[in-house]
Amino acid sequence: MSDDPFLKIVNGLVAIVLGVGGTVALYWVLNFLVGLLPGKWDKRIKPYVFIGPAILVVAVFLVYPALMTVIYSFADDNSINWVGVQNYVDLFQDDEFIGTLVNNLLWILIVPAGSVIVGLLVAVLADRLKAVPERIAKSVIFMPMAISFVGASTIWGFVYATRFAQGDEQIGLLSAISTSLGFEPVAWLRISDYNLNDLLLIVIMIWLQAGFAMVLLSSAIKGVPDDTVEAARIDGASEIQIFFKVVVPQIWPTVIVVFVTILILVLKVFDIVYVMTGGRSGTSVLANTFFVELFEFGDAGRAAAVVVVLMIAVIPVMIYQMRQFKKQEAR
Amino acid sequence: MSATGFGRVTLGSVAVRVGIVLLCLLWFIPTLGLLVSSFRDEADVKSSGWWTVFTDPFNVSQWTFDSYSQVLESGMANAFVNSLVVSIPATVLPIMIAAFAAYAFTFMRFPGRNVLFMLIVGLLVVPLQVAFVPLLSLFSDYDLNGTFLAVWLAHTAFGMPLAVYILRNYMAGVPREIIESAEIDGASHFQTFWRLIVPMSVPALAAFAIFQFLWVWNDLLVALIFLGAGDNEVVTITLRDLIGDRGQEWHLLTAGAFITMTVPLLVFFSLQRYFVRGLTAGSVKG
């Protein structure tokens, strides 16, 4: 290693001091300068001093590049010549890309629903335990939230590992179970029949996200007033009826929040697919195709077009989000 | 709802316990396999399933730190330092900038306020990929690709919408009278922000800090694009390369993965309460 780790740490510390100090100084100086203006102008300009840097950062590093990406998607691989809609035509005539879209659809259909169901199940079951076991159970389900996608891919890659040589013992849990049941060893992530390999990757995402669903749903369930449940019980409703007709309607807004949050995350899923299969054997998703087009094929135009497709997929969620926000503010 | 409030009749308490224990086992066993294997000898990891250790768990001779020292020497130690150098500034910088903006959005009136805040809400869901290609060429104009500064800037921007959103939602809960009485006392906005609102917002600031730190530490995509492999690579990239180059060396992969997980798990177990609050606040409210 040519770089001294000590130098890097100093570098990082300088960044913190300069960054924080510089930011505070910037605000202070701007605030002071605006303060010199006559009363009315001071009041008018000061809000822009406060929001200015945040808006500037977002504009330069998010909004401007997003617009440029849309423009690049109509240009060739080096973003030099215009090619019209050729990138989009190429994408949609490519069977592999259609398969990718189907995979994305599969992810967004299964992961949010699966995570909500598991999260709800744990929240309901744990709610009936004593305080300490409840906390332990919840921590176990929640812990994967702290693990990176790459870490999770390693964990599950080991579960899915298979050995083929004669006489080798299976060291992956799944293959150990399947071979002990008499099946031949198989390379799990290469089986594209019935999208099995996609489903095995999807399991990882549910494993990561169920804890998040559980935390929010659990606090919603604890917020359901006891008397509504008691009233239903006195009316002779069964526990299952109580759950679906009394509890679920009251926690429904939280279910939607959890669902939408996980949906947004799943739309741009990348790491798991990239690390586990690299998108091979028909497992690619949009974000992985983007990466492959850009860095393996060096085609900035097609990569941009893939992102634009992704962006279009996000637009309905974005509109929903903004509407919800307006509603919430009106309250 | 109280613990005894609902469900003592049909679902017996035994069934509840069996159900929850099964789910917990299902959730925990994959991680347990990783942890156990990372402390086993290379030959053992490659010749028998990790679950076989439970036939003789107290046989000390089967446990070893060899895989850890091997992984650390082959670049993981360097990457660990890099991850810290990337994550801490990338956490601190957006908080500062977002706090000022959130204050203005909450307590100041100005033309364009609603439009600009709607922009922030909209950007919450925009996939980061939209920014990559143009940012790469922008950064290359200034020779920034592969430097820490590039990832700090990228993460500061990518974390900004969520930071402003969380902090603004939290500040909206501060009673207006506090601000008004400060104004009557002649405090400027700058003073009110610094002496009143920042101290009052510590829970939200902490929640976002944890959230952003874990996000940056665990991030692979932004690091791959703007930092890449080499001297400055972070732990997620080192682990990815291990998986790619030595995919069958499970003793190394498990130890490497566990090293990358130590910091997030530490943050998670020590600050779980704030982390939960961060998630609750961070999930876009419906």
TrEMBL record, chain A:
CDD domains: TM_PBP2. It holds the Pfam family BPD_transp_1. It is a multi-pass membrane protein. The chain crosses the membrane at residues 12-36, 48-75, 105-127, 139-159, 199-221, 242-267, 303-322. GO terms for cellular component: plasma membrane. Belongs to the binding-protein-dependent transport system permease family. This is Alpha-glucoside transport system permease protein. The lineage of its organism: Bacteria, Bacillati, Actinomycetota, Actinomycetes, Propionibacteriales.
From TrEMBL, chain B:
It holds the Pfam family BPD_transp_1. PROSITE patterns: ABC_TM1 (PS50928). CDD domains: TM_PBP2. SUPFAM superfamilies: MetI-like. It comes from the Bacteria. One of its GO terms (cellular component) is plasma membrane. Residues 80-271 form the ABC transmembrane type-1 domain. Its main location: membrane. Belongs to the binding-protein-dependent transport system permease family. This is Alpha-glucoside transport system permease protein.
